[in-house]
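Late entry, written up from scratch paper. The run itself happened at the end of the previous shift, but nothing got recorded in the book at the time, so transcribing now.
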Amino acid sequence: MKYDLDYWEIMLRQNSGTAEQISNIRWGFVKPANASTVLDFGSGVGWFRAFRPRGVTVFTYDVANYPQTSIPEDFVSCDLVCLWDVLEHIPDFSVIDRFLVNTKFVAVSLPIVKQDTDFLGWKHFKPQEHLHYFTEEILDALFKKWLFSPIEKGSPECPPRKDILSVLYKRNI
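Output as recorded:
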């Protein structure tokens, strides 16, 4: 998958109808984090920031170098790191290590493989785009390695989406 200007324009056109709805669902889901500073890592076109609540600062980052996606050079920490539909695309998870070390909460949404999934016929089976596939147990084990435990789990985005798990993790103290 080539993440270029054409990709972002397609995403804007295809998803603008549900972007506010999904962003509001996500903000409701992360409410227990009571975050005032947020990093939306893998922010795409920036919907989550665009629909943020008043008083919340959202830093955005994506692989594409667009005006809405940048992390200040002096960025050190935030209350919450969001990985909305991004973890399955990251080739090497070490790129997010520095952000996870300095945060209290992490929110994740991604396609989740269930035991009865017909993997090859699954909507989210995209070998050229999705580099990793997760079960709920594997996802929890990965975040346990980073010293996080789940405090909220569910599928609040379904519908309008399908087979998406959202998890809010809290750093173990």
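The chain has one domain: 5-171.
(Scratch paper discarded after transcription.)
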